[in-house]
Input
Amino acid sequence: MSFKTAIGAPMAAIAAAGIVAFSTSPASAASHGSLLQQDASGGCFVSLYLNKSTKWAYAKVGMYSYDWTCKGFVKNNHGSKSWTAKSASDVWSGGVWRGKGYKVQACVYAYYKNKYKSWACTHWH
Output
């Protein structure tokens, strides 16, 4: 089943244009694609993944140490953004489109005992 068949041709055109950020997160880490970069701040880390066959990018955030919670997102340079849940365990964002001419970046906000402390972002890819 193609992307257009799965969500309908009009919706595929909107998603390809970067107007909306939505995705059902893939069922396994392998389907998120390959790791492009990681960055960390405070007790949190963010990983940027790209599935080259589907052209969707994802963020994975997690924590390094006790008492930290992390919330992150992935975004593209056309205005689409998809957030993760705020969590003390590893969690994935939905996806954003990274077609021709698009760049993506993943960021994380670090909270210590539920108080904001710092942030980090990967480079644009």
